[in-house]
């Protein structure tokens, strides 16, 4: 129960920031397209993450493999905004 509440709190606070960033980083003429791509990428990413996590559970992956997965995904999620800010 507590984990579901924490998940909702984090998702609720991050989603508004994500959507605001899409609006800030795009021109008004392509903003709707950018929101569409963002939503699609978010959905595909969630699906891929669920598949990979389920695969790791089915294969009885070690704690270290799960930790490596978390670190890699967090590094990728930090690298993209830094790249966008740097090239802007």
Task: Provide structural commentary.
By secondary structure, this protein is mainly alpha-helical. The chain has one domain (2-87). It has three helices and no strands. The protein has helices spanning 2-25, 31-58, 63-87. The longest helix has 28 residues, at 31-58. 0% of the residues are buried.
Brief write-up:
The chain has 88 residues and is mostly helical. 88% of the residues lie in helices and 0% in strands.
Give the ordered list of helices and strands.
HHH
Radius of gyration using CA atoms only: 16 Å
Q: Helix count?
A: 3
- Quaternary: single chain
Structural class given helices, strands, pairing?
mainly alpha
Shape: globular
**How many angstroms does the end-to-end distance come to?**
42 Å
Number of domains: 1
Total strand segments: 0
Low-confidence parts: none
Average pLDDT reading: 88
Strand content: under 5%
Helix content: over 70%
Could you give a short account of the major beta sheet?
A: none
């Amino acid at each position: 129960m507590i984990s579901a509440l924490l998940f909702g709190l984090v998702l609720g606070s991050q989603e508004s920031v994500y959507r605001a960033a899409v609006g800030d980083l795009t021109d008004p003429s392509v903003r709707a397209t950018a929101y569409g791509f963002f939503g699609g990428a978010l959905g595909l990413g969630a699906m891929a993450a669920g598949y990979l996590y389920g695969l790791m559970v089915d294969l009885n992956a070690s704690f270290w493999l799960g930790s490596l997965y978390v670190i890699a995904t967090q590094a990728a999620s930090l690298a993209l905004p830094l790249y966008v800010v740097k090239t802007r």
